[in-house]
């Protein structure tokens, strides 16, 4: 799967659900802060997608870019006991995408999607769409309707530096 194939599959999924969304092309971005700046949006509206090994299965965790995944909260939610991030190579093999360019749709890759409850407080979310220079803006409620993630508390606020 090439990057453009993921974008095409994502657009097809959104279009099939009659979701309203906007696609933006911009300079390549490699951090959540760069993405928020180039999009002109808040860091908390960025939907960060992380692919992890949870016990014996691979899942996607989605949270505001201003937060970090909490293994303690994941255990408290009784999702699993053992948690680790996939390596860059594992992510590439599974998705054909580099970390940081993965859209928050685990369903595109056959993965269960867990979304942090804090993202649900955002009216709109923004995320890279299979490429470091393509973003999509989508109402959170449209995201919830199309992806149907499990929305629970899985992330902590990033410490202020």
UniProtKB/TrEMBL annotation:
<keyword id="KW-0436">Ligase</keyword>
<dbReference type="InterPro" id="IPR036754">
    <property type="entry name" value="YbaK/aa-tRNA-synt-asso_dom_sf"/>
</dbReference>
<feature type="domain" description="YbaK/aminoacyl-tRNA synthetase-associated">
    <location>
        <begin position="26"/>
        <end position="145"/>
    </location>
</feature>
<dbReference type="Pfam" id="PF04073">
    <property type="entry name" value="tRNA_edit"/>
</dbReference>
<dbReference type="GO" id="GO:0004812">
    <property type="term" value="F:aminoacyl-tRNA ligase activity"/>
</dbReference>
<dbReference type="InterPro" id="IPR007214">
    <property type="entry name" value="YbaK/aa-tRNA-synth-assoc-dom"/>
</dbReference>
<dbReference type="GO" id="GO:0002161">
    <property type="term" value="F:aminoacyl-tRNA deacylase activity"/>
</dbReference>
<protein>
    <submittedName>
        <fullName>YbaK/prolyl-tRNA synthetase associated region</fullName>
    </submittedName>
</protein>
<keyword id="KW-0030">Aminoacyl-tRNA synthetase</keyword>
């Amino acid at each position: 799967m090439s990057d453009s194939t993921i974008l095409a599959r994502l657009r097809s999924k959104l279009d099939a659900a009659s979701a309203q969304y906007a696609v933006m092309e911009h300079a390549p971005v490699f951090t959540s802060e760069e993405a928020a700046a180039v999009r002109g949006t808040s860091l908390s509206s960025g939907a960060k997608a992380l692919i992890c090994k949870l016990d014996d299965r691979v899942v996607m965790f989605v949270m505001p870019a201003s937060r970090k995944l909490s293994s303690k909260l994941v255990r408290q939610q009784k999702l699993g006991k053992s948690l680790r991030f996939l390596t860059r190579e594992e992510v590439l093999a599974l998705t054909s995408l580099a970390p940081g360019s993965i859209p928050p749709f685990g369903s595109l890759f056959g993965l269960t999607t867990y979304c942090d409850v804090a993202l649900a407080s955002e009216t709109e979310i923004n995320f890279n769409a299979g490429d470091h220079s393509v973003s999509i803006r989508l109402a959170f409620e449209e995201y919830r309707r199309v992806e149907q993630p499990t929305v629970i508390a899985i992330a902590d606020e990033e410490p202020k530096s």
